[in-house]
Automatic annotation (TrEMBL):
Ranges where the FAD-binding PCMH-type domain occurs: 1-220
Name of the protein described by the UniProt record: Xanthine dehydrogenase family protein subunit M
UniProt entry keywords in alphabetical sequence: Oxidoreductase
Highest taxon in the source lineage: Bacteria
Taxonomic source organism: Streptomyces coryli
GO function term, MF aspect, one: FAD binding
Pfam families reported for this sequence: CO_deh_flav_C, FAD_binding_5
Entry keyword Nucleotide-binding: no
SUPFAM superfamilies referenced in this protein's UniProt entry, alphabetically: CO dehydrogenase flavoprotein C-terminal domain-like, FAD-binding/transporter-associated domain-like
The UniProt record lists the keyword Oxidoreductase: yes
Amino acid sequence: MHPFTYTRASDVPEAIAAGRRGGRYIAGGTTLVDLMREGVERPETVVDISGLPLRDVVATERGGLRIGALVTMAEAAAHPKVRALFPVVSEALELSASAQLRNMASIGGNIMQRTRCPYFRDPTAACNKRDPGAGCAARGGFNRGHAILGASDSCVATHCSDVAVAFAALEATVRLLGPDGRRQVPIAEFLLRPKTSPDREHDIGDGELITAIELPALPRPLQSGYLKVRDRQSYEFALTSAAVALHVHGGVIRTAKVAAGGVGTVPWKLPAVEEHLVGERPSQSLWATAAAKSADGASPLQHNRFKVELLKRTVERQLRIVGGTE
Ligand code: SF4
């Protein structure tokens, strides 16, 4: 492993100052330590932020929920407010990683985690994300797990967080604190598509720290849930997934929030599906016609064409489950 300096921040200003000097933040360490061992990440300074007071889950004045960035995945999944208000978040977390990792990994770190593209993690392979300008070994290589939506000539890697898919569906915002003060960024803008710079993955500056994820107030009652399709039933990343939240009043869908995972270079919001649902009455045929729009714009690679149909079926199945017709 590349030699590095370890420091532990005792408060938020100290962490921001260290981050501004180029330090890399570490909390649970479940992504960064792996990548440092593999020689993919080589930070000069690692700043331990695990002791900072960012561990609360609180109801917001507006009726939403704010989850502190250092709340662990396990704590968030089990939290009574999260389970009651946003089961889609709990389910996405519980279907992620292993119990051991969920006990270590933080919510902020989870959305910052880096891709599982095997070429990214192989320092001998060409990878624009690891080494800008080097090329993309996945485009001509084995790309069964890669993206069918949001890819560029530079990179076709998927975003691998499950809970970020739930956050995207719900239109969560990322709260940041940095040298220039506070910012709130919609998660759809915080997670960047690769375009020509796949090495730049987040709208975050030097010294900026994620302090919390804020889930918005949504009309109640709200039914929600997360479905993940993968090669094995545990400790595996999604081939496809669907996060769905529906508010039905008077027999009519008034609000629909839908996003897909495992298919996009970022968690993939599905506005065409949402628009198709709102104002309609739940039915088997409605779920099917809405889900048919979920792969609009897909651009599959040599080995992942199956994801186009699998995505439609995943979304349809989850609409049926959440909509109460299964
Ligand atoms: Fe690297 Fe992205 Fe290509 Fe994977 S898909 S090899 S992460 S550039």
